[in-house]
Design brief:
The complex is a heterotetramer of chains A (about 270), B (about 400), C (about 300) and D (about 220). Chain A is about 75% helix and about 0% strand. Chain A is mainly α and about 270 residues long. Chain B has about 400 residues and is α/β, with parallel strands linked by helices. Chain B folds into two domains: about 120 residues, Immunoglobulins (Immunoglobulin-like); about 180 residues, Rossmann fold (3-Layer(aba) Sandwich). In chain B, about 40% of the residues lie in helices and about 20% in strands. In chain B, the strands form three sheets. In chain B, strands 11-10-9-12-13-14 form a six-stranded parallel β-sheet, with helices on both faces. In chain B, strands 3, 4, 6, 7 and 8 form a five-stranded antiparallel β-sheet that branches. Chain B has a three-stranded antiparallel β-sheet with strand order 1-2-5, with no helix packed on it. The longest helix of chain B has 29 residues. Helix content of chain C is about 50%, strand content about 10%. In chain C, strands 3-2-1-4-5-6 form a six-stranded parallel β-sheet, sandwiched between helices. The longest helix of chain C is centred in the C-terminal third of the chain and has 29 residues. The radius of gyration of chain C is 23 Å and the shape is elongated. Chains A and D meet through helix 2, helix 3, helix 5, helix 6 and helix 8 of A and helix 1, helix 2, helix 3, helix 4 and helix 5 of D.
Chain lengths: ~270, ~400, ~300, ~220
């Protein structure tokens, strides 16, 4: 126990030393005026801080540790405040104030857009939501929730029916035979190009059967037995191809994110590459 | 059985009643060359203007036959300018430009009285179309037409197909709900992911470790999140019965509010209201990766026996699921975010794929009403399959009209 | 440096994988941290040592290269910049390398754009590639930048019959008729090859429908990886070849390097970005293979 | 009463929004309601922020495990909140964009929030690898299909795929791995995605109907039926 404590103290000391050295090295020098010096000192600190936080997050891959905990807790605090501020300025000051009060619009220097009584609806609902904090009238917050859920249900019902359901269904109407030109040309060009009818035709079959059996897999009220069971099994296979393919396709994009982070460390912080 | 057939047929035939829509005007290829450059082109002909249908006013549709010198004749047309005035004598102002080959233009103004581009309804407008050449000074105006007024319609006929589907689906759902209430037995297949939930809660109790329930990054305006509340309600009830721990970190404050309400009620229903505390369901932060960082930390520190992820998930799905696997937890997931399902399938023990997430809430309840709505969903799927087959056949016989029935105008 | 780095990384990663293979054949699971370490190494080592892989051009990329390579010097190639800054990291290497190839082959190059943002990007390509690498090329004789005109596919509709109806001057305001490069050029149909780099709207698809198809003009394209599958059906009848994503750019760069080995200090952003990604992919694939081998030979009895 | 009114509200709001789509004069209702939702969400921030302070404050006062880190959260929260709400160091004053260059808010965003978020995101590269190692095992038919599809796509995105199968003539080019990868992405993958999408759409429609009709009400803290 004592040994591990000593080790963590040594690590802490090392981290502090590296931090300070990095800060000094990144402080590009002392300009003549005070402002320039201050900016340089500040930027040196910020680069070092960003690098420290980056490494702290990466350290989680080894195991949970105090440096990760520090980064995590800082991140939670800063980000919660970040979205509160953005919500306040963009929605509350940007959308709400210009519709309810001329004086407040002037105070926040946003253009007043004319009084709109309907904007008191969200105000009232918002206050109802806050009443949750009181145990006596907390039940009234359900009215606000009911409004939110009703809106959600109404909007989504139509949106999904229109864009996902109707369009996807009609996209499945595809020809079974594409430009039939005889057996010879059909089998002699097995390429993805527009002249390769075999693949075009095969693709259409695969799409049709895939959608068909995939939908059968999603039947809930019928037992998946017999012919129906076979179709549903084919459906699972199609879904598995989809999952495998999407997974494989994403790998490259994820790796490039890591390239971006490591480039920051190697280039902006350590100056190892250019 | 007869009822079923009848309803199925109705659902299939409904879209057939909807009007078919014309395709876009074909765009001409300009292939012939011409030497006459700076001669005035012929004007456009057959210019018509009428109110735009299916809108709330403030729009006028113009149509014309392109100049004979557009793709032929002198072949010197550069484009068309649409001009509008409030009297036949002008002044005319430019409303828009279209390239050669175009035979129409939608003049859509703003609906906002305060905005600059406001276009009032019930006002007489006069239009002309100017045929341009590359030389700004050489052009030909069409005859002036008008007056024409824009006005709003009360009903959008362009969305009739959607209305048919809504009504059809509503009838189906109501029918099966009534039937289920009447005592008919409805079969529902097993959902492995949901059955695993009960098992996992038992396991957590044995191990004396808590259950982590993640509602995802959805807000209360996502149906997936609302479906997740139902599952949370069920989980919380079991957890309360077994006296296991429950941790629900939330991403959205409103979601947190609802989740607290749901869990509290479940504890009350289980007869253990005092075991509930608001600390079980807490707000973390409304930032994707900060939330993940915190949940990751929780997973490795509290080592929950089971992690349940239900709702909307984005790039963080795999970070959560892999960290959970590292902590040795059993993981059950469900999302309707198609791009993330593969990651859950790969990294979790059980996954509810898309629609199964919504079905789960009905399945858990086991109430006839909810099961009835599942049955309606299945019938709709059967209708899709039949429609797809019909579409397949019509396309193969080059009868494009059927597919056009599915066009929804905006 | 490059070779040393390659040897070091090959040794480290190769031997490491071999050790893991032997271990897992004995039935031992690979610990997660080892996988993490390998991924970290396979991304950082190529970054640090600047390791690159020579790509072998797929036929669809090869077709573009061969076309430009086989055109006689002085052929007229039009390159359209149909993208904006957000797409630039992925497709800019393509317009750069194709422009460079045309310069090497002494083709006459006409630059334009269907996107408003394309104009500044084509201008920067002129500065970055033609002016910097080929200083003896003369503007107006060997190359010209006619810039952007509004109208999307409408622009194509016009310039397929006559450039001068749409473009009176080049970007510098010089009359087209006074530019020797436009001698005897009336419309797109006088071009030997069209190249559209982009992928959004308007983009390659509009070039196919409104220029290449009606005018029977050869067209090549370059686009982001996401839009490549959508354009595939046009190949090879309507598009003679297509560079898809950073990988397409890398393949082209490597084809060019192979053909002109003297171009040692040519920037190769595509290949450089592919280096870490390729190695990481291979390591992941190796892990999948090792995982399955251990599953079949050693762990089968133990696995649930 | 406490249970009935919320259900009636949901019913009315939902029905009105559905009908508004078909009646142009009411078309903008959906948009307006979304703005209302955003405004309500701002009020909810108080709930969220309050909850955050309560949870972490509690930890600090009761000196629970890791209370020191909770202090970090609270400090980070208040400094960022002050920087944002008071627009500290903001060169443009109150009228300027909250994240104007040079403001404390923007500095904290660029050098704390952003590196942390980007690094968390970059962890995915590692997790993608460990998940593929762990899960891509040919345990049964389904797992094998998953494995093969992923492997072909991975191969197709590296030069290796071309080295192995580049010799196959153009007329059989589908057998070249990069082409096979493209085909998988555009055909079976598309079919699977479409099936899931149609299913989800039906699920959403059905769930929305259940909510509007008031048969699904757990979200209100009311048990079904």
């Amino acid at each position: 126990m004592n040994g591990s404590r000593r080790l963590s103290l040594i690590i802490l000391a090392a981290v502090l030393v590296v931090f300070v050295v990095s800060w000094i090295l990144h402080t590009t020098g002392f300009q003549g005026d005070g402002a320039g010096t201050w900016l340089s000192v500040r930027d040196g600190f910020l680069v070092t801080l960003a690098a420290f936080l980056t490494l702290a997050i990466f350290s989680f891959l080894y195991k949970d540790n105090p440096y990760y905990k520090f980064a995590e807790h800082l991140f939670v605090g800063v980000s919660a405040a970040y979205w509160m501020c953005v919500g306040f300025w963009s929605t509350f000051v940007g959308n709400f104030i210009p519709r309810v009060s001329h004086t407040l619009s002037d105070f926040f220097q946003v253009p007043y857009k004319g009084f709109n009584v309907f904007y008191f609806v969200p105000l009232i609902l918002g206050i109802m939501l806050l009443l949750r904090l009181s145990s006596k009238v907390g039940w009234i917050s359900r009215w606000a929730l009911a409004f939110i859920v009703g809106t959600t249900a109404g909007l989504n019902l139509i949106r999904y029916l229109r864009t996902d359901f109707i369009t996807q269904v009609s996209n499945t109407f595809v020809p079974l035979l594409v430009d039939w030109k005889g057996i010879g040309p059909f089998f002699s060009d097995l390429s993805l190009s527009a002249s390769g009818q075999f693949m075009l035709t095969l693709s259409n079959w695969v799409i049709f059967i895939g959608v068909f059996s995939g939908l059968i897999y999603f039947f809930f009220s019928k037992e998946h037995k017999g012919l129906f069971g076979t179709a549903s099994r084919v459906g699972i296979w199609v879904l598995m191809i989809t999952f495998g393919a999407s997974f494989g396709y994403t790998v490259m994009g994820r790796v490039s994110l890591l390239v971006g982070r490591l480039t920051f460390l190697f280039q902006d912080w350590l100056g190892l590459i250019n | 059985m007869k009822h079923k057939l009848l309803i199925g047929c109705c659902l299939l035939l409904l879209p057939l009643l909807a009007p078919a829509w014309a395709q876009e005007a074909p765009v001409a290829d300009t292939t012939t060359d011409s030497t006459a450059a700076m001669q005035a082109p012929a004007p456009v002909t057959d210019l018509t203007a009428r109110d735009k249908e299916n809108d709330h006013g403030h729009g006028i549709v113009l149509e014309w036959t392109p100049s004979v010198d557009d793709d032929g004749g002198l072949n010197n047309v550069f484009g068309y300018v649409i001009q509008r005035a409030e009297s036949p004598d002008g002044p005319f102002e430019e409303r828009g430009r279209v390239p050669i080959g175009a035979g129409g233009y939608d003049d859509i103004g703003s609906k906002e009285r305060e905005s600059d581009g406001f276009m009032p309804d019930y006002v007489d407008y006069y239009y002309l179309v100017r045929t341009l050449t590359v030389d700004e000074a050489v052009y030909t105006d069409s005859d002036i037409i008008g007056p024409v007024q824009s006005y709003g319609q009360w009903f959008n006929t362009g969305r009739i197909p959607v209305l048919f589907f809504v009504i059809g689906f509503m009838i189906l759902t109501m029918y099966f709900i009534t039937k289920a209430r009447g005592g008919a037995k409805l079969f529902v297949r097993r959902l492995a992911g949901i059955e695993a939930v009960d098992e996992a809660i038992g396991r957590a109790t044995e191990m004396g470790k808590p259950i982590l329930y993640v509602l995802g990054l959805g807000t209360a305006s996502d149906i997936a999140t609302i479906a997740s509340f139902t599952i949370l309600g069920r989980v919380a009830k079991k957890v309360a019965e077994y006296q296991t721990g429950l941790i629900v970190p939330c991403y959205d404050p409103i979601v947190m509010t609802v989740a607290q309400e749901t869990v509290r009620t479940s504890y009350m229903d289980a007869g253990r209201p005092d075991s509930y505390s608001d600390d079980m369901v807490y707000f973390v932060t409304q930032s994707q990766f900060a939330y993940v960082a915190a949940v990751n930390g929780t997973m490795l520190r509290e080592l929950p026996a089971t992690n349940i992820y239900m709702g909307k998930f984005f790039a963080e799905s795999l970070i959560l699921a892999e960290t959970g696997a590292l902590a040795g937890s059993i993981q059950i997931s469900g999302t309707d975010e198609i791009a993330q399902i593969p990651f859950f399938v790969v990294a979790c023990d059980y996954t509810l794929i898309g629609e199964e997430l919504y079905a789960a809430s009905a399945y858990l309840g086991r109430e006839p009403v909810l099961l009835g709505s599942l049955k309606a969903q299945d019938y709709a799927k059967a209708a899709v399959i039949i429609l797809a087959v019909i579409g397949f056949i019509t396309i193969n016989f080059d009868w494009g009209g059927f597919k056009q029935l599915f066009q929804v105008l905006d | 440096m490059n070779n040393l780095g390659l040897i070091i990384s090959a040794l480290v990663i190769g031997l490491g994988l071999l050790w893991l293979l032997i271990r897992s054949l004995k039935g031992k699971e690979v610990e997660r941290r080892v996988i993490f370490l390998f991924i970290g190494l396979s991304v950082s080592v190529p970054l640090l040592f600047n390791i690159t892989f020579s790509e072998k051009a797929t036929p669809i990329v090869r077709a573009v290269f061969d076309k430009i390579e086989s055109l006689p010097p002085g052929s007229k190639v039009l390159i359209s910049f149909d993208y904006g800054p957000s797409m630039a990291p992925e497709v800019e290497p393509m317009s750069d390398i194709i422009l460079r190839h045309c310069m090497i082959k002494n083709h006459r190059v006409y630059l334009m754009g269907l996107w408003a943002t394309g104009q500044s990007l084509s201008a920067s390509a002129v500065d970055k590639i033609i002016k910097a690498e080929f200083p003896d090329k003369i503007n107006g004789l060997d190359y010209v930048n006619i810039g952007y005109k509004a109208g999307n596919q409408g622009v194509l509709n016009v310039i397929i019959t006559d450039f001068r109806k749409m473009y009176a001057t080049d970007v510098d305001g010089v009359d087209l008729d006074s530019l020797p490069i436009f001698d005897g050029i009336k419309s797109l149909k006088d071009m030997n090859l069209l190249v559209s780099v982009g992928g959004g709207f308007p983009g390659i698809k509009e070039w196919v429908l409104f220029a290449a198809d009606p005018g029977h003009i050869p067209l090549a394209g370059g686009c982001a990886a996401v839009s490549a599958p959508l354009l595939y059906p046009y190949y090879p009848r309507q598009i003679l070849g297509l560079l898809g994503g950073i990988k397409g750019a890398a393949e082209y760069e490597s084809a060019l390097m192979k053909k002109y080995p003297e171009l040692t200090d040519m920037p190769i952003p595509g290949i450089r970005m592919m280096g870490p990604q390729t190695l990481a992919h291979m390591v992941i694939m190796a892990f999948i293979v090792i995982g399955n081998l251990s599953f079949f030979f050693a762990g089968r009895k133990k696995q649930p | 009463m406490k249970r009935q009114i919320p259900i009636i509200i949901t019913f009315i709001v939902g029905t009105v929004l559905i009908l508004s789509v078909f009646f142009p004069p009411f078309e903008r209702l959906g948009e307006d309601f979304s703005i209302y939702f955003d405004i309500i969400a701002v009020f909810a921030f108080f709930l969220g922020g309050g909850n955050l302070i309560r949870i972490h404050g509690d930890k600090i006062f009761k000196r629970r495990k890791d209370w020191g880190f909770s202090l970090v959260t609270i400090l980070g929260f208040f400094i960022m909140l002050a920087a944002g709400l008071l627009k500290l160091w903001n060169p443009g004053g109150i009228a300027a964009d909250v994240a104007a260059t040079g403001s404390l808010f923007q500095l904290m965003y660029d050098w704390i929030f952003n590196p942390l978020g980007a690094t968390m995101y970059a962890l995915l590269a590692f997790y993608v690898a460990s998940a593929s190692y762990r899960a891509f095992r040919a345990k049964n038919v389904e797992a094998t299909i998953l494995l093969v599809a992923a492997f072909v796509i991975l191969l197709g995105r590296t030069p290796l795929g071309m080295y192995v199968t580049g010799w196959i003539p153009e007329s059989f080019s589908i057998l070249q791995i990069p082409n096979m990868a493209i085909w998988i992405m555009t055909s079976p993958n598309l079919a699977g995605q479409r099936a899931i999408m149609i299913g989800i759409a039906l699920g959403v429609v059905s769930m929305s109907l259940r909510l509007i009709l008031g048969v699904e009400r757990t979200y209100l803290g009311v048990d079904n039926e």
